[in-house]
Design brief:
Keywords: Cell membrane, Membrane, Transmembrane, Transmembrane helix, Transport
Shape: flat
Family: Belongs to the binding-protein-dependent transport system permease family.
Membrane topology: Multi-pass membrane protein
Radius of gyration: 25 Å
CATH class of the largest domain: Mainly Alpha
Order of helices and strands: HHHHHHHHHHHH
Largest sheet: none
Protein name: Carbohydrate ABC transporter permease
Subcellular location: Cell membrane
Helix content: over 70%
Structural class: mainly alpha
Number of domains: 2
CATH architecture of the largest domain: Orthogonal Bundle
Strand content: under 5%
Length: 291
């Protein structure tokens, strides 16, 4: 009896230590998340409430006078409503890019997972190369100029699709392995062609990974600063991240309007992430565990 009691006590103590360890790790994770994500956002929001004189101090103090609405109006009216133009351009760019990513990545992932040929290894190498090899700016500009797509939203859409396709293909391919091949065979026996099998049988089953790609890639494209700077110059083609230059100059910076601009362009992806956070985790988990 004493040995059993000892073993039971050891197991109970082990469980208690595991719970304490889990609680400590969870608490540390929450604190780190607050420091990394919540504190910077709170700092941006506080500065957006201030007048120009108060915001120039870059302090975390609560403003004596709240002028958020006036800051929003001044930010939107700057340079003939360039922020509105940027919001429209970024919305078009994000929707078009993510739509093409989903279609192309789903089809490529389906073929790579379902068919094995002598070219499969080489294609997988190309897909992984898209994640490893950094993009070349000058050759890309030369290609876009040759196609007549430089300084156009259409060309920028193709650039975003090319840069985000590899990651999307890997997600779709991993998730595709969870779908039984018997569905393909049954649809083929019923007389369905390859395109009909994919779009009517397979694609509706990809809802979770499609949501994951939509959310992740939408945030990536929306927050992209470097690529529009290189491949989409011009005020008429401005995207939301490039509008941050509107309130900075060599000798002065309007911090109140700058942080208001950051707040305006941060809210849409933040809302999307908060609403669909579970879908993101679910899509990654399904592809990783069952793939």
């Amino acid at each position: 009896m004493s040995s059993r009691a000892t073993e039971a006590g050891i197991r109970t103590g082990s469980r208690t230590r595991q719970r304490v360890f889990s609680w400590v790790v969870g608490s540390i994770a929450v604190v780190v998340s607050l420091v990394v994500f919540v504190v910077p956002f709170a700092f941006i929001a506080v500065q957006a409430l201030k007048t120009r004189q108060d915001a120039n101090q870059l302090s975390f103090a609560w403003p004596e006078e709240i002028v958020l609405w006036q800051n929003v109006v001044d930010t939107i009216q700057t340079r003939d409503y360039i922020v509105v133009t940027a919001l429209i351009n970024s919305t078009i760019l994000t929707v078009a890019s993510v739509t093409l990513m989903i279609i192309f990545a789903a089809m490529v992932g389906y073929v790579l997972q379902r068919r094995t040929t002598r070219w499969t290894g080489f294609i997988n190498f190309l897909v992984l190369s898209g994640l490893i090899i950094p993009p070349a700016v000058v050759p890309t500009i030369w290609v876009l100029q040759g196609l007549g797509l430089f300084r156009t939203l259409t060309g920028m859409v193709f650039v975003e699709v090319a840069f985000g396709l590899s990651f999307s293909i890997l997600l779709f391919r991993a998730f595709m392995s969870t779908i039984p091949r018997e569905l393909d065979e049954a649809a083929t026996i019923d007389g369905a062609g390859p395109l009909r099998v994919f779009f009517q049988v397979i694609f509706p089953l990809l809802r979770s990974v499609v949501l994951t790609v939509i959310i992740v890639q939408s945030v990536v494209v929306w927050n992209d600063f470097v690529h529009p700077l290189y491949f989409l110059p011009g005020d008429d083609n401005a995207t939301v991240q490039l509008t941050l230059y509107n309130f900075q100059s060599q000798f002065s910076t309007q911090y109140n309007l700058l942080f208001t601009n950051i707040l305006i362009i941060t809210i849409p992806p933040l809302v999307v992430f908060l609403l669909f956070n579970r879908q993101i985790v679910g899509g990654f988990t399904t592809g990783a565990v069952k793939g």
